[in-house]
């Protein structure tokens, strides 16, 4: 679906790519105010969990959990936040957000009020993506960069 920003994210935001897994693609969020904040999105354009077969749904959830564990190991947050909304971009995608109790929005949701975006240089996105891939590898997760 060409008009879907999630369907084109992998091609549009090359520097933010982390890994292609069996059922999902994983990319950094452009705004890295919350270090490691990433998206896990289904390869196929679907809008609801129930659109997936049970086998694929279980695989997707296992991939979301693996990404969260890798983020936890890489960034040592106090909590990982997960969001699956799809109201603005109707393509199944999780926001996986490492949070620290010291962040200025704690304990509110990361989107509860505006904050100053942290935009990285290309090489910083690439390094952060490599760090997350390394931690996924330590968990035995295999995919393609």
Automatic annotation (TrEMBL):
<dbReference type="Pfam" id="PF01230">
    <property type="entry name" value="HIT"/>
</dbReference>
<dbReference type="InterPro" id="IPR011146">
    <property type="entry name" value="HIT-like"/>
</dbReference>
<feature type="domain" description="HIT">
    <location>
        <begin position="5"/>
        <end position="106"/>
    </location>
</feature>
<dbReference type="InterPro" id="IPR036265">
    <property type="entry name" value="HIT-like_sf"/>
</dbReference>
<dbReference type="InterPro" id="IPR001310">
    <property type="entry name" value="Histidine_triad_HIT"/>
</dbReference>
<dbReference type="InterPro" id="IPR026026">
    <property type="entry name" value="HIT_Hint"/>
</dbReference>
<protein>
    <submittedName>
        <fullName>HIT family protein</fullName>
    </submittedName>
</protein>
<feature type="short sequence motif" description="Histidine triad motif">
    <location>
        <begin position="91"/>
        <end position="95"/>
    </location>
</feature>
